[in-house]
Amino acid sequence: MTAGPDAGTHDTETGEREPLEGRVALVTGASRGIGRACAMALAAAGAHCILTARSQGGLEETDDLIRRRTGRASTLLPLDLRDGAAIDALGPSIADRFGRLDVMVHCAAMLGVLTPVTHMRDTDWTATLAVNATAAWRLIRTIAPLLEHAPAGRAVFLTDGHAVRPASFWGMMAASKAAMEAMVLTWAEEIPPGSGLRINLYDPGPVATRLRVQAMPAADLSSLPGPDAAGAAVAALCLPAETRHGQRIAAAT
Known about the structure:
Blueprint: E1 24-28, H1 33-44, E2 48-53, H2 56-70, E3 75-78, H3 84-88, H4 90-98, E4 103-106, H5 122-149, E5 154-158, H6 171-190, E6 198-203, H7 210-215, H8 227-237, E7 247-250
Parallel strand pairs: 1-2, 1-4, 2-3, 4-5, 5-6, 6-7
Helix pairs in contact: 1-2, 1-8, 4-5, 5-6
């Protein structure tokens, strides 16, 4: 990990305390798209962000954008979510480095291959499940103790409409995200009454991202919203004032 929290996180324009001042947020898939937008929105709210993705270059670009917007650095952690041992070490590493984790936003995802169910290949299925479902379980397991001890722990998992509305050829995404949703909502049910931890799913709907282009290379994305709206919505779910818990929240259409 590189860099660490900066002191004195106040809104420089108003002088008011930022809602996530002094808090630490982990964002997966932060090198581009919605993950980058979430990281920027959380940083703008005062959080020190731990950014993970496979691409070091993409993480550095996100960090540069955050520095320009807030004047603060992030902690960069290149991470392949197919590496179970690396995920397992994440919680202890954050505890050793920061002593806390207040927010976790899981944006990283794999499209898989758009193909009939009968044509799915073992390697594609295994890789998609590893990123979209197994990695989410490992993240929950490694960061839960930190979030449970946070004064207002927040966890948001990005999901996809195909998890609840299956469509032809989207079987890998649908099945893997449905598994993730079931696991996240089960975890939410297991949180004892009186806990300050809030856990939710967020479905941003169609967004103009690289993943969307990968899925539909010939589609016109000019009418779709960019990632910033999704980033702002997710950041709002991470604020201490948020009361929703165990819900699947979809973007307004």
